[in-house]
Amino acid sequence: MRLSRYFLPVLKETPAEAQIVSHRYMLRAGMIKQASSGIYSWLPLGFKVLKNIENIVHEEQARAGHIAMLMPTLQSADLWRESGRYDGYGEEMLRMQDRHGRDLLFSPTAEEMFTDVFRTYVRSYKDLPLTLYQVQWKFRDEIRPRFGVMRGREFFMKDGYNFDLTKEDALHAYNRHLVSYLRTYERMGLQAIPMRAESGPIGGDYTHEFLVLAETGESGVFYDSEITDLTFGDRAIDFDDVAQCQAVLEEFTSRYARTDDTHDQALFESQVPEDRRREARGIEVGQIFYFGTKYSESMGATVQDQTGAQVPVHMGSHGIGVSRLLGAIIEASHDESGIIWPEGVTPFHCGIVNLKQGDAEADAACEALEASLIALGLDPLYDDRDERAGGKFATMDLIGLPWRITVGPRGLKNGVVELTSRRTGESEEMPPEQAVARIAQIYRRAQA
Ligand code: ATP
Ligand code: MG
Question: Quick check: pTM over 0.90?
Answer without folding.
Answer: yes
